[in-house]
Amino acid sequence: MGAQLRVYKQKISSAQTTKKITKAMELIAASRIQKAMGRVRASSPFARAVTRAVSAVATHSDVEHPLTTERETIRRSAVVIFASDRGLAGAFNSQILREGLEVAELLRSQGKEVDYYLIGRKAVGYFQFRRMRAAGEWTGDTDTPHFSTAEQVAGALLDAYAQGGEDGGVDEIHLVYNRFVSMMTQTPESVRLLPLEVVEADADSAATSPVYPLYEFEPDPETVLDALLPVYVQSRIFNALLQSSAAKHAATQKAMKSASDNADKLITDYTRLRNNARQAEITQQIAEIVGGADALASGK
C-alpha cells in the first residue's frame, strides 16, 4: 500500500507541474492573439487601398499585363504553404499541410506539375522527413511576421512566375494558409494569387459599397500596373502571414486550455485513487491491530 501511495503522489505532482506549464502557455498565447489581431486590423486599410487601386487599373484599362493574363498552357503551379515554427498548437500544422497536399494533388490531376514553397519549420521538417523537394523555404518569422519576409517570398514567387513553366518557373501561384475566424475556429483556406484574381470585398459589403470614380493614369496603365502589382502581391502574402500567426496563437491557446483541463482531470482521478489507497491502508492497519488485540486476549 505504501508503494501505491508514493506512485499516486508522484503522478499528482507531475500532473500539477504540467498544469502550471500549460496554464502559463495558455496565458502567453492569449496575450499574443490580441497583438496578432491588432496587426491584422492595422494592415487591412492598406490592403484594401492597394486592392482598390489594382481593381481600378484592371477595370478601366485594356492592358494585357503578364500578372493579370492567364497563360494558354499551365504546365507548373506553385503551392505556398503557411505553417508555423513551433508546435503545441493542436491540429494547426497538420490540417494546413493536409490542405496543401490536397491542393497539389488536385493540380496534378489536372496535368500540372507542382513546386512547393514552405513557410515555417514544421512544414520544412515535414517535407524533409518524407524526402520531398521544396523550391523555397522561409523559417523563423511566423510568430510575429515582418513585412521583409513577405517581400522575400513575393520576390521569389514573382521571379518564378516571370520565368514561366517552360523555363523552370511556374505559371500560377496558390496560397494555402489558416484563416483566423474566431478564438475557437481557424479554417484552412486556399486562394489563387496569380494570375491575378482581384477580390474587392465580400458580398455584403459589395452591395453597400459606393461606385468607384473613374481614374486617370499617369504616365500610363501599364507602368502603373508594373508598380502596383508587386505591392499587391506583397500585401496579400503579408496578410496571409498575419492571418496564419493569429490562427496559430488561437490554436495554441485552445490546445493549452484542453491540456490544462486534462491535467485537472488527472489530478482529480489520482487524488481519488490516492485517498482510496490511503483508506485501504488505514483499514488494513486497524484490522491488524484488532486482530492482534484479539490474539492477545484469547492467549490469556
UniProtKB/TrEMBL annotation:
GO molecular function: ATP binding; proton-transporting ATP synthase activity, rotational mechanism
Gene Ontology BP, a term: proton motive force-driven plasma membrane ATP synthesis
Keywords assigned: ATP synthesis, Cell membrane, CF(1), Coiled coil, Hydrogen ion transport, Ion transport, Membrane, Transport
Alphabetical list of CDD domains matching this protein: F1-ATPase_gamma
Pfam family, one: ATP-synt
Superkingdom of this protein's organism: Bacteria
Gene Ontology CC annotation, any one: proton-transporting ATP synthase complex
Identification of the protein by name: ATP synthase gamma chain
Name of the gene encoding the protein in the UniProt record: atpG
